[in-house]
Amino acid sequence: MNGKIENFEITGGRKLKGTIRTNASKNGSVGLLCASLLNKGKTTLHGISRIEEVFRMIEVLESIGVSVKWIAPHSIEVVVPKKFEMANLNKSSALKTRSVIMIAGPLIHSLKSFSLPHAQGCKLGKRTVSAHIYGLEELGVETKVTNKTYKISHQKLKPGEIIMYESGDTACENLLTASALIPGKTTIKFASSNYQVQEICFFLEKLGVRIEGIGTTTITIHGIKGAVNKNIVYYNSEDPIESMMWITAAIVTKSKLEITRCPIDFLELELYKLKKMGLKFKILRSYKARNKYTDLADILVLPSKLEALEDKIESRPYPGINIDNLPFFGLIAACASGQTLIHDWVYENRAIYLTELNRLGANVLLADPHRVFVNGPTEWKSAQVMCPPALRPSVVIMLAMLAGNGKSVLRNVYMINRGYENMAQRFNSIGAKVKSTQD
């Protein structure tokens, strides 16, 4: 963070070609960093994304006394201190990542009381932390919300039966780490079964915690007594949202592109919807991720003529179209013949950002804060656009710029750097022309 603003100059209208590999998961990286606080031994994590969201979380952890050391380009070593120094918490970094609340679950096992600042992250409307607060309450944790902080305290932790207030990913991860070291059986009902939640479950199993129902909406955690003090090694798996980005890039540029290491279980419905729209693709091979649990596949996407679906496209907690993949469908709908209703029921601001595609030639009509009508096909054109304050819509605008003939400028790409690594270089490696500039 040098204070300068980074922009992307994109020369569009070029075909993508070759093979691109899916990187390790952003959300998995952040979740594993938080979960590593449970282990008093040395935790080695492979497949950690070098992105702004991870850098901010590392700054937070280091400020409270955690040793975080990069031992390879995507591998880190984490060692927790004997005592967490919460008074030194880096508030500036904490405020830049909504994920900071996820350290609450692990920290309750070391501290009777502490405070965390209200976090920010993407601006997607009202995003409450009620699921975190209510769930922790069932484990004996009290959270007082002030104007600027969450004051977290407890007298005695207890196992419990938690009914999730909403099926949130980060809330579920927080409750998993909170219940991991509470002796006895804790059940989380209406749990998220999304990829990053499964990742945390697999990691906790590595620590010695027995978990039933991984990948379902009822998870049972058999908490263990006492601190975990092990030297462990864990591999984070790949990011299905990034795989979907590459699939969308191939679609919008009408390119033949092979995407490797795609977490197929978390893309099957997306691919089936795309198949019904007319997308031609092939599954080339299937295999396991390095974590030995996640199923991966190599996917070849072929240039295709798409037709709009008769039904609306909306997201759902897994198994459903991933909430983070929905903006990509807004862009894909703009490439298809006909009209598509995109319903983003989760966030009351995010659908609005899809109207920015109109600057690039799209025909996107805002119905209300949650719904847009997208009319296609689109003849993309170049333009200058400021990144909206949300990760996935920012990437969607970048992909549209790849399709439009001429030179486009995407300004202030910090939001993209929060979740994606070396975007300009990686797109250039498959035939795009993206130049990073600074103001």
From TrEMBL:
<dbReference type="GO" id="GO:0071555">
    <property type="term" value="P:cell wall organization"/>
</dbReference>
<dbReference type="InterPro" id="IPR001986">
    <property type="entry name" value="Enolpyruvate_Tfrase_dom"/>
</dbReference>
<keyword id="KW-0808">Transferase</keyword>
<dbReference type="InterPro" id="IPR036968">
    <property type="entry name" value="Enolpyruvate_Tfrase_sf"/>
</dbReference>
<dbReference type="Pfam" id="PF00275">
    <property type="entry name" value="EPSP_synthase"/>
</dbReference>
<comment type="similarity">
    <text>Belongs to the EPSP synthase family. MurA subfamily.</text>
</comment>
<dbReference type="InterPro" id="IPR013792">
    <property type="entry name" value="RNA3'P_cycl/enolpyr_Trfase_a/b"/>
</dbReference>
<keyword id="KW-0963">Cytoplasm</keyword>
<dbReference type="GO" id="GO:0005737">
    <property type="term" value="C:cytoplasm"/>
</dbReference>
<dbReference type="GO" id="GO:0009252">
    <property type="term" value="P:peptidoglycan biosynthetic process"/>
</dbReference>
<dbReference type="GO" id="GO:0051301">
    <property type="term" value="P:cell division"/>
</dbReference>
<comment type="pathway">
    <text>Cell wall biogenesis; peptidoglycan biosynthesis.</text>
</comment>
<keyword id="KW-0133">Cell shape</keyword>
<keyword id="KW-0573">Peptidoglycan synthesis</keyword>
<keyword id="KW-0131">Cell cycle</keyword>
<feature type="domain" description="Enolpyruvate transferase">
    <location>
        <begin position="11"/>
        <end position="425"/>
    </location>
</feature>
<keyword id="KW-0961">Cell wall biogenesis/degradation</keyword>
<keyword id="KW-0132">Cell division</keyword>
<protein>
    <recommendedName>
        <fullName>UDP-N-acetylglucosamine 1-carboxyvinyltransferase</fullName>
        <ecNumber>2.5.1.7</ecNumber>
    </recommendedName>
</protein>
<dbReference type="InterPro" id="IPR050068">
    <property type="entry name" value="MurA_subfamily"/>
</dbReference>
<dbReference type="GO" id="GO:0008760">
    <property type="term" value="F:UDP-N-acetylglucosamine 1-carboxyvinyltransferase activity"/>
</dbReference>
<dbReference type="GO" id="GO:0008360">
    <property type="term" value="P:regulation of cell shape"/>
</dbReference>
